[in-house]
Design brief:
Shape: globular
Number of strands: 16
Number of helices: 6
Oligomer: single chain
Structural class: alpha+beta
Radius of gyration: 20 Å
Order of helices and strands: HEEEEHEHEHEHEEEEEHEEEE
Length: 293
């Protein structure tokens, strides 16, 4: 247990103030200028096998779009507003929520396209669910926040507003079985919320992600021409990470993407097994464009 999980009232207050300051700098503001900015979100670290999963609540890692409700407006993680239908946000609690807009497993591209349209009248919104998993700056540890969150969602009584299912496991073997079952069913992986952790902004071991692969993002900086069957098409994307590493991604590209690849400057997500001794991703595979904020 780290110090953050043992916050007393005074330190909890200081943590909330820090969160508000971080959010103000990042641009995540409330719709009402007289109301303090919404807290910055918690961000996940990667699960390490040395960690005891019995200390955590476990949920599926949803393949959706992160959405923070500040009590008045849905926002991307960056703070930019999400254009959602009035009926979708009507009746949501007047308290911050953290979750994902979700259509279902392996439907991220469809959801991304819907949100990029910024058309609140589009009928596709009728299938979208807001799957919430935490209360930013909420009181108590995660177990207490989860109970409060379930009560809020029940009181709101909106079928598209749902709490992400959370469960406990007894040991690492049970965690691995749950991961295997989730991935076999088309899920991306698991998220772990430490049960005794108070809410805090930024990255910490209070929130972990577990997937069969490592994943990261890089920006497209060029194209490598294809050969043989791929003559006249893109053979691979040349990409660059934030820290300046360049490499190529060819695996995972469909014929359609090879004909019309992501534009130069586009941020893409890729998966890989491990890093080489030189720091390059081994066996990188294209996953999707990250065209949303």
């Amino acid at each position: 247990m780290n110090a953050a999980s043992r916050l007393g009232p005074a330190r909890t207050h200081r943590t909330l103030i820090l969160a508000l300051l971080v959010a103000a700098v990042s641009g995540a503001a409330w719709a009402d200028p007289h109301t303090p900015p919404a807290p910055a979100p918690m961000l996940a670290l990667r699960y390490d096998a040395a960690i005891d999963p019995a200390q955590y609540w476990i949920s599926e890692k949803l393949d959706g779009v992160r959405a923070l409700w500040d009590g008045r407006q849905l926002r991307f993680r960056s703070g930019r507003p999400i254009v959602a239908p009035d009926w979708f946000v009507a009746g949501l609690p007047h308290t911050p929520l953290d979750g994902e807009l979700w259509l279902g497993r392996q439907r991220f591209d469809e959801l991304s396209g819907l949100i990029r349209r910024a058309d609140p009248q589009h009928p596709g919104w009728r299938a979208v669910r807001y799957m919430v998993f935490d209360q930013p700056a909420g009181a108590g540890d995660f177990s207490a926040r989860l109970q409060a969150l379930q009560a809020l969602v029940m009181a709101a009584d909106r079928p598209w507003l749902q709490v992400v299912e959370q469960r406990r496991v007894t040991d690492r073997a049970a965690l691995q079985r749950l991961l295997d079952d989730t991935v076999a069913g088309g899920g991306e992986g698991l998220m772990l919320h430490r049960a005794d952790a108070h809410w805090q902004p930024g990255r910490s071991d209070a929130l972990l992600k577990l997937t069969p692969w490592l994943d990261a993002e890089a920006r497209v900086v060029g194209y490598i021409p294809g050969k043989g069957r791929l003559q006249g098409k893109v053979g691979a994307l040349e990409v660059e990470t934030d820290d300046g590493r360049r490499f190529r991604i060819g695996s995972g590209l469909t014929d359609a993407l090879r004909n019309t690849p992501p534009a130069i400057g586009t941020l893409v997500t890729y998966r890989y097994r491990e890093l080489t001794p030189g720091g390059q991703p081994r066996f990188p595979r294209y996953v999707r464009e990250r065209t949303l904020p």
